Amino acid sequence: MEVSNTNKIILPKTKIVATFGPACSDEKLMEKMVESGVTCFRLNTAHSNTDELMKLVEFRNRMADERKRYVSIMVDLKGPELRAVLGQEKIEILEGKEYSLGQKGERVDISIAVDGVISSLKKGDVILFMDGKIRTEVVNEGDRKCTIRSSMEGTLKNNGRMNIPGRYIPMGILQERDKEYLKLSVEHKVEFVALSFVQNRKEIDMVHDMISDMGGNIQIISKIETKQALDNLDGIVKASDALMVARGDLGVEMPLHEVSVSQKFIMKKAHSTGLPIIVATQMLESMVSSESPTRAEISDVTNAILDNTDALMLSEETAIGQFPLEAVQVLRDTSLYVEEYYCDFSEPAEFTGSKITFSVARSTKLLSDQIKAHHIVAFTRGGNTARMVSSMRPRAGIIAATPSRLVACRINLYRGIYPYVLKEFRENISVNEVLNLLLESNLIRKGERIVVISGHPEHLFAGTAQVSILTAGKLVARGYVLGPSISGKVNEGKGSIFVGSEEDLSRSGINQEEYSGFIIRGNMRRTLINRLQEMGKTCIYSTIVLQEVKKGEIVFIDSDIGFVYA
Hints:
Elements: E1 2-3, E2 8-9, E3 15-19, H1 27-35, E4 38-44, H2 50-67, E5 72-76, E6 82-85, E7 90-93, E8 98-103, E9 110-112, H3 117-120, E10 126-129, E11 134-140, E12 145-150, E13 154-157, E14 160-163, H4 176-187, E15 192-195, H5 201-213, E16 219-224, H6 227-231, H7 233-239, E17 242-246, H8 247-253, H9 256-272, E18 277-280, H10 295-306, E19 311-314, H11 316-319, H12 324-341, H13 355-370, E20 375-379, H14 384-391, E21 397-402, H15 405-411, E22 417-421, H16 431-440, E23 449-454, E24 466-471, E25 475-482, E26 486-489, E27 497-501, H17 502-506, E28 517-521, H18 526-534, E29 538-545, E30 554-558, E31 563-565
Parallel strand pairs: 3-4, 3-19, 4-5, 5-15, 8-9, 15-16, 16-17, 17-18, 18-19, 20-21, 20-23, 21-22, 27-28, 28-29
Antiparallel strand pairs: 1-2, 6-9, 6-14, 7-13, 8-12, 10-11, 10-14, 11-12, 23-24, 25-29, 25-31, 26-30, 30-31
Helix pairs in contact: 1-12, 5-7, 8-9, 10-12
């Protein structure tokens, strides 16, 4: 559950990524999408320009400054693509017929502009054209040209897409246009770049180095959309900051009946190491032109949530669809319903970071689940603690306190995270100071049980090392408690909480049955304790008062630990 400064806003733990485009370019509509659950806008650079990126940057900054809503930007780089180059507009491919395929400049039926592709091909390799509509097989190898045979007929258009499943193609990971977008993304502190057609870990490491050389701190989302990426998944997981199951091209690279199982495999692999994951492509495709989704689409969304995704992504639905806001709301409502009935997700089996931090994060989940905490408050400077706690999948929502707006926008992609930026940050800020700020912002309420994960008590942001249990509010008294936890006003008569000594309670005119609870200073006789128990009243006795409370002030009696908060 998330709470704004003014109104309670119920949003799902599962995050929503919306692709930016003409259908949702109006800022008022974008604001409504954010209020409905969008925490990240994706820019598909294959169908956009740099002006649109600047609009997203301005919108993100304004939402943070004016609305305290932290939205991230994902720049989806087009990456390398194989295209069929023809000497004409199109050719008809016939079943069983052979065609020559070669590097550009060779006299062949079909050319490829990318160097080194033909020499990588082996006899028996499958080559797909037009998103898999035309299937061919290499029958003769060569350095500059080869022969392929078609197993189906169809129309091959000039510049039509090509896929070569399972074969590493040395194309590089970025085009020149991608590098321009990457440079602009670093300049404007974009949170994520998504790499298309990733084949191995080496390519991801290369882009990490490019970002570092540019002076940037952008996280990389690797899109798993090739058979080669599936084969090299272990290395890709280790090099990536997050994964995306890009089912569009994955469905071209392999038979469609294998895609769902591959999706589950990728998600399980990512979650086993605590890596955030996004499920994308055709989540609600019918809503491009229809106001309502199909039952199959809702089932698909539900299964992605049950399989432990961090986020769901909309593509054409929000970029060019007729109902972008409605599509977001369908994801929100479905996620809220599924999360209400299923919350027992497994935790990662391992983590690549600090073992101490990993152990503390596990303890945070265990404690918060067992005591049914209202919230977890995570102190996170760079976002790593927030990511680890999120990956544990605790039942309580996670409020991540951070001094960095960039980090706040980034961690808002992680499941169950609500970011809170500490405006007036000090290195020696205390837990109580932060909890008071959260109380003032209506993010937590007095009397709510909070599990806090942080660093050293005097340096909360200096490495995650401890977990503690607190109750929101000012500690005013402690003692021995009988009965359930309650809250109420002090000494206001019927329904309120009596505060005083046993002698005060025994005065004539006080109707003990009217009060919901009692805070008794000093000792109490056993007969009075028994009588209050028989009436079903909450009572705290042998109370040590730490701070005085005034008549009419609201207090909370925590029966689990014998504390009174105001």
